[in-house]
Amino acid sequence: MHNSDHSGDGPNTAPVQSVLSGMRPTGALHLGHYHGALANWVTLQDRYQCYFFVADWHALTTHYESPELIQKNIRDMVIDWLAAGIDPERSVLFIQSQVPQHAELHLLLSMCTPLSWLERVPTYKDQQANLSDKDLATYGFLGYPLLQAADILIYGASWVPVGEDQVPHVELTREVARRFNHLFGREPDFEHRLGQCLKGLAPEAVAALKQSRSAWLESGDSAARERARILLDRLGLSRPDRQRLGGWIEGAGRQLLSEPQPLLTEASRLPGLDGRKMSKSYGNAIAMRDDAVELEAKIRKMPTDPARVRRSDPGNPEHCPVWDLHKVYSEQSTRDWVQAGCTSAGIGCIECKKPVAEAVQREQALFYQRAEPFLKHPERVDEILKIGSKLASEAAEQTMVQVRAAMGLSPRWI
Ligand code: TRP
Ligand code: SF4
To answer: Most Cβ neighbours (<10 Å): which of 98, 171, 176, 253?
Structure first.
């Protein structure tokens, strides 16, 4: 790493930041999931310690009447994560309900989260209206975003890859963390410990931190705050000292819970077979693991530009869902061929569909190849989730030890 300041005594490399994201167990995934969320998860593995989990409790908040689906859906979905290239050697894959600390943190956060914060989350009223066939006037459903906040805060995740609809949940998470730190980050001897900690640092580091702190607190200079954060990460501090200094920069007590940032997943550029958003419930989805015959039939039946009634009528790719597939799957030369051939009626739609059908098939062949060992031995999926749940549990417990102590819940015999 290029590093021009020599102010710290500790290691100069920042600890790896972590990423956390979850999906409700909806079963086998489709290409919209892949080109939306999953392909992004796969690349994040190179830069961050990633935690990816199955949000089975979240599934119950809306589908509490069909618990029988959960176990099968978990395996089918996680096989598709693996098929996409999520690497269980590098990322921690786990099941939410196997890490009960999430529920404990949810409960503790619920003590200090105003009801109004939850009632005004946009998904709350929207989903109640959209899923009007279900009774969502439940306590669990109102608490959905707070459970999500617990999921995120318990790992101290810096980044949360989510779609646009979930950004308000990450915002709520930030507010909840701030309120928690404000209420429970006040150690009786905070000033003293902070002083000790500053004394242990090189004077240049202290000067740099003080300068950034006043730039942030007095003029709201968020770049200065970010500089301070990066410097703090490099100083090789113990966790409690890192939290104290982090809080001091903010003009507050200890930062027991750290505020995450959303990492906005671009909406998938891949619409469904009929041009609407790809969704299993619309019946317009291509599964990540459709077999070749199914895929061929789906693409053959795909509607094209309605203006191209006869082969001799010219068409406009902008009015055709096949073109959307070309935009994702084809190289420039093929796209040029489509543009020219469609608008001049030089090519027919059957011809035009062929290269995308082949490209999707190649992609699916790769998914199959990665999924195959797990389809043959599904117990290997369980094993990955079991190991991951144990690792996640250890990480979550570290946060809970501090949270319990801060909330007065550590009995004297501990
Ligand atoms: N609510 C998310 C969704 O519906 C799933 C989820 C639960 C999640 N907990 C999370 C996503 C924590 C990111 C982080 O897609
Ligand atoms: Fe669509 Fe291709 Fe047919 Fe044009 S030629 S209408 S882009 S399928």
So the answer is: 176
